[in-house]
Design goal:
8 helices, alpha/beta
């Protein structure tokens, strides 16, 4: 549980919101530890336990970010997430991310909230982030922007794709690329057909999945 400050939040209000978030997180953790939730695998029935992360806030104020990290790392969370505004550009985000990550224990998972565009993924992983989440890949798909494995983006709304007979990406192994042409997907989008959304969403998620798998392999081989 956290309070997400807007980009225009002033420094005094930002600090008040940060301390309020810290109180909420401490209360949530206390209840979590007193009542540990146990879940069971729907098929095997094997029990597994839910993890709870502390969320580092503080906006673009590095002092508050460090204060937040210092407070939260004194509590027995299973891992830590970095949330809230991290700047207006990717460069600003990466500049702020470096000292925040260094403030978190390397032996616990470090999660970055709200970042999922392909251009940012490799860079944030190289800055010490372990996992990310974002609605961006599915939102981009809904608006007709689909990824390619080489890092490109195809804007399916363009009429140049209306007669295209090939898949979005010949190298992609998703079911959309196996069974549907770019021209057909263009038609679905222009006709506002509901079938368009799941088809392109599946494609974008598969491309992202493969790109992350490649980054993981590069990390294991010490290439990045």
């Amino acid at each position: 549980l956290d309070e997400l400050p807007a980009n225009h939040t002033g420094p005094q209000e930002l600090e008040l919101m940060l301390h309020r978030t810290h109180r909420w997180q401490a209360r949530s953790l206390r209840y979590f530890l007193e009542h540990p939730p146990v879940h069971h695998h729907p098929v095997t029935g094997v029990p597994f336990y839910q993890a709870m992360y502390g969320i580092v806030h503080g906006g673009t104020d590095l002092r508050l970010r460090r204060l937040s990290a210092d407070y939260l790392t004194r509590l027995p969370f299973d891992g830590f997430a970095i949330g809230g505004a991290l700047g207006a550009t990717r460069a600003e985000m990466l500049t702020l991310l470096t000292p925040i990550v260094k403030s978190l224990p390397a032996e616990l998972p470090r999660h970055l909230l709200g970042i999922g565009d392909p251009e940012s993924l490799q860079q944030v992983f190289m800055h010490g982030i372990d996992t990310c989440d974002s609605s961006y890949p599915t939102r981009a798909a809904r608006h007709g922007s689909v990824y390619t494995l080489n890092g490109g983006v195809i804007k399916l709304r363009s009429t140049r794709y209306s007669r295209e007979t090939g898949p979005i990406d010949p190298a992609c192994d998703c079911s959309t690329c196996k069974h549907y042409s770019v021209g057909y997907l263009h038609h679905l989008l222009k006709a506002n057909e509901s079938a368009f959304i799941p088809l392109v969403t599946l494609h974008n998620l598969r491309v992202l999945q493969r790109r992350v798998a490649l980054i993981r392999e590069q990390i294991l081989r010490d290439e990045i």
